[in-house]
Amino acid sequence: MDVSGGMARKKINNELWKALQPLLPTVEPSPKGGRPRVEDRAALNGILFVLQTGIPWEDLPQELGFGSGMTCWRRLRDWQTSGVWGRLHLAMLTRLREHDQIDWTRASIDGAAVASPRGASRPARTPRTAASSAASAISS
Fold first, then answer.
1. Which residues contact 92 (CB under 8 A, 6 or more apart)?
2. What gap in Å lies between CA 20 and CA 119, rounded to an integer?
3. How far apart are alpha carbons 62 and 43 in whole angstroms?
4. What are 95-107's pLDDT values in tens digits?
5. pTM higher than 0.90
6. Origin, by domain of life (predicted)?
């Protein structure tokens, strides 16, 4: 039986894992004991499975061995907050580009990130656009 519902996805291979693992923080087990932490490699595979298939986090099949959808979601949240996810994402994209594995036919560009042509009229700055511009500058 295909537990992925027909949505097969390759797991991270050993070569890629060797490049990604050093980017992850080391987490010491709790001195209180408790349930063992899901391995980072399994959680990353779960995160990528959900992002690629678009299934809800809670529908991540346990049979895949990636941990629960909530565990994967929390790991993504923690990695995003600490800046780890950005480094992982960049490393994965770099590796995919090196191996010509990016499907550019499915790529899109955000027009807000492209400079307007010379001579184009510029909309008036309203308080809302000014705040939006400031937020963009801060997050960059």
1. 16, 20
2. 45
3. 12
4. 888 988 888 887 7
5. no
6. Bacteria
